[in-house]
Write a structure and sequence with these properties.
- Helix content is 32%, strand content 22%.
- It is α+β, with helices and mostly antiparallel strands.
- It folds into 2 domains: 196 residues, Fructose-1,6-Bisphosphatase, subunit A, domain 1 (Fructose-1,6-Bisphosphatase, Chain A, domain 1), CATH 3.30.540.10; 130 residues, D-Maltodextrin-Binding Protein, domain 2 (3-Layer(aba) Sandwich).
- An 8-stranded mixed beta sheet has the order 4-3-5-6-7-8-9-10, sandwiched between helices.
- Helix 2 packs antiparallel against helix 3, helix 3 packs antiparallel against helix 4 and helix 5 packs across helix 8.
- The chain is globular and about 80 Å long.
- The N and C termini lie far apart (86 Å).
- Bound molecules: 6-O-phosphono-alpha-D-fructofuranose.
- The site of 6-O-phosphono-alpha-D-fructofuranose has 9 residues, from loops.
Length: 349
């Protein structure tokens, strides 16, 4: 009996079998308990993405999707019904998982502990359940951003103090982008990989491996409505791109969507500090640090303008940072304007 020779069609079948959980084990080249944990973790995140995508797809037809809850979150932002739904989805998918003891979310002032998972669950999920929720009611892109860290110590006072470490402590990071298709992009520190949800299978299937951000791109993505609030260096960068050919402005108003374009096509996204918010608007632990982890894995850069995002040590769970992220050359160009201004300011002193 000749050895079984898989037919040509096996490629398509094998491709459809490249699910997220299998990919994680391939990435780690291991079936160790930690590898199995991370594979199961990513599978739960994928389940959260599927549940949120399904809910979003019926927005407008259901009561609990559009509009506001009437509450304000710890950020001082009006809470959308979808923010609350998505926040609870992430909590629910990790219950009875034994994986995650603690979740830290944009929507919750303090970390949430899943009692039955503590202290056996040695992982913490940090997440922005719905990023860009102002886009929901107008059917534009929104996303979920996630970061996974190992819990260090028992956290007996339940303050999550061990989370106040720089972004290089992240075990994994990624996002789910809800758009014409739902894609999940993640990294375990071994490259950046993208999966596309096949609704007919209910699975995220590998669609792009080892994504590398171009060293330069035409896009600059920033809310120029804040121009009057910016430092002069950022204004000078904006004047530069206005006066030089080859730049295009693109701004969706959802960080995940703007980042995804930059990751695939190059360019730079900025959310700089302003007079009113010198630290900017975006949160470090579950927005800028996870994306910085990804962009560095993809060969790009992420900076506050003065230091690498992944070096920033947070003083609080909801700490914000300015963000300049994208192609290495384009981030360096923005930084050069900031450095020029710093040098000029020093010479004047
Ligand atoms: P602005 C959404 O609220 C968000 O946190 C990010 O997704 C997005 O990049 C940013 O705020 C948009 O803020 O001030 O430009 O509306």
């Amino acid at each position: 009996m000749a050895d079984y020779q898989p037919a040509e069609t096996t490629f398509a079948v094998d491709r459809d079998c490249k699910t997220l959980s299998r990919h994680v084990l391939e990435q780690l080249q291991s079936f160790s308990p930690e590898a199995q944990d991370l594979s199961a973790l990513m599978n739960r995140i994928a389940l959260a993405g599927k549940l949120i995508a399904r809910h979003l797809s019926r927005a407008g037809l259901m009561e609990s999707v559009l509009g506001f809850t009437g509450d304000t979150n710890v950020q001082g932002e009006a809470v959308k019904k979808m923010d609350l739904y998505a926040n609870n989805v992430f909590i629910s998918v990790f219950k009875q998982s034994g994986l995650v003891c603690r979740l830290a979310s944009e929507e919750m002032e303090k970390p949430y502990y899943i009692p039955e998972n503590c202290p056996i669950g040695r992982y913490t999920l940090l997440y922005d359940p719905i990023d860009g929720s102002s886009n929901i009611d107008i059917n534009l892109n929104v996303g979920s951003i996630f970061s996974i860290r190992r819990q260090q110590g028992e956290d007996l006072d339940q303050t999550g103090a061990d989370l106040l470490q720089n972004g290089r402590q992240q075990l994994a990071a990624g996002y789910i982008l809800y758009g014409p298709s739902t894609v999940l992009v993640y990294s375990l520190g071994q490259g950046v990989h993208m999966f596309t949800l096949d609704p007919s299978l209910g699975e995220f299937i590998l669609s792009s491996e080892n994504i590398q951000v171009p060293s330069h791109g035409p896009t600059y993505s920033v809310n120029e409505g804040n121009f009057w609030q910016w430092e002069e260096s950022i204004r000078d960068f904006t004047r530069y791109v206005h006066r030089h050919e080859g730049y295009s402005a693109r701004y969706v108003g959802a960080l995940v969507a703007d980042f995804h374009r930059i990751l695939l096509q190059g360019g730079v996204f900025l959310y700089p500090g302003t007079v009113k918010k010198p630290e900017g608007k975006l949160r470090l632990l579950y927005e800028t640090a996870p994306l910085a982890f990804l962009i560095e894995q993809a060969g790009g850069k992420a900076s506050t303008g003065r230091e690498a995002i992944l070096e920033v040590i947070p003083q609080a769970i909801h700490q914000r940072t300015p963000l300049i992220i994208g192609s290495a050359e384009d981030v360096a160009l923005v930084e050069s304007f900031i450095q020029d201004h710093n040098h000029r300011r020093q010479r004047q002193q």
